[in-house]
Amino acid sequence: MDTTANQAKQYSFIERSYRSIFVSYLTSSTTHGLKCIAEAYSTSNRILWICSFMFALGWMLFFIISSGIQYLSYPTQIDMEIRNEYTMIFPAVTICSAHPLRTDKTNAALLAYAKRMEINVTQIDLETLVEPLIVDLFNRNQRNELIDLGFQLSDILIDCSYNGINCSSFFTHSLSSQFGNCYTFNWNGTMKNLFTIRNMSTLSVGVEGLSMQFYIPRESYYPVSYIDDGLVVSIHENNEFSLVVKNGLRLQPDVGYKNWCPQCTPECKNTDFNTVLSALSYPSPKQKASVTKRLLRNQSNSSSILLPDDFALKSDLYLNNNLLKITITYSNYYVIVYNQKAKILIVDLFSSIGGQTGIWLGLSILGVIEFGEVLFKMIVKCIVLIKRQTTAKPNPTINTVERERENKSEETIRESNELRF
Q1: Each residue's pLDDT tens digit, 127-157
Q2: H/E/C letters for each residue in 318-370?
Q3: Rounded mean pLDDT, 271-280
Q4: Is the pTM of this model over 0.70?
Q5: Domains of the chain by start residue, with CATH
């Protein structure tokens, strides 16, 4: 009897029935409920455990699928961090003249354009040729001529100071299709060492931020009715071009403006500066006298500031109409950093799946391997049986029939030693 039992244990699973393989899995599985189904003492008890197992399995699959759907929706969360940034880089500032055309330069260009296009200037208003001229120069990529039509930085900039440091030479030229010549301070494209908040002059006392003083030569504007006067100012990231047409602040002379509190709000690698605009009366009588003295001294030294011929006689009137001062500064050294990151990571997904399988069925990765082993055995058995049927002879001999009877009797003996389903 012992010999027969040992032979049954060593019998290959291929020779066992599907039922025997499945019953063996149920009785040895670590998954909760399966052993109770296999060892049920009655039919009603087995039905109870089957229903309980299916109920738990259904809820487990529901929560696992819900976790997967939530993960695939890629939810995000935003963390806010407030920190001191004394080495924060000052943003780039782009300045454009709202009126891009000088009278003396534009008249000469219009006459040359009319001659080239064979237009009779005595029968047409030159103002109607301004837009076709600009379009023609852009189409022919005549960059130098476009630059020559507008105001140079030296034509309008009186003074530039950053934390007490003279910054008149730290501007980069660019060309706008609407505003013509534009000039950018602290741009990463041309400056190796950008200005930071901590860059201070050794002689500066209580001077912070970027301060620029402009003389707006309205008398030199080409008389076009649909173009504004003044300046357009844009604050942007140091490594990007300014969208001055969309984001620019339009500043008029005879009123001072103060931009403060640029808050850096990074989104991925993009920085947005939110500016707060305020206006102050400028200049005061004392400031006016100082600027007048400086401009007249520069004029005697062949300064390139475009001043009218009667500026000395009517300096008070011209300064009231044309003097503009811009101050761009920061209110504190705090930077608010918003970090957007995934709310559910792949680790969280697997943790959720593991928790659901554990609480409903007590299923672990080893339990999954056990179930995979059963499927493997059944698939291999099915493949072997199919091969045997295809290779079997049509007229089996007596020895083959006797061998099959012996196999059946051995299988019956082995199944008698297993737990009944």
Answers
A1: 788 888 888 888 888 888 888 888 899 888 9
A2: HHHHHEEEEEECCCCCEEEEEEEEECCCHHHHHHHHHHHHHHHHCCCHHHHHH
A3: 67
A4: no
A5: 1-30+364-421 (no CATH), 36-75+346-362 (no CATH), 83-102+150-340 (2.60.470.10)
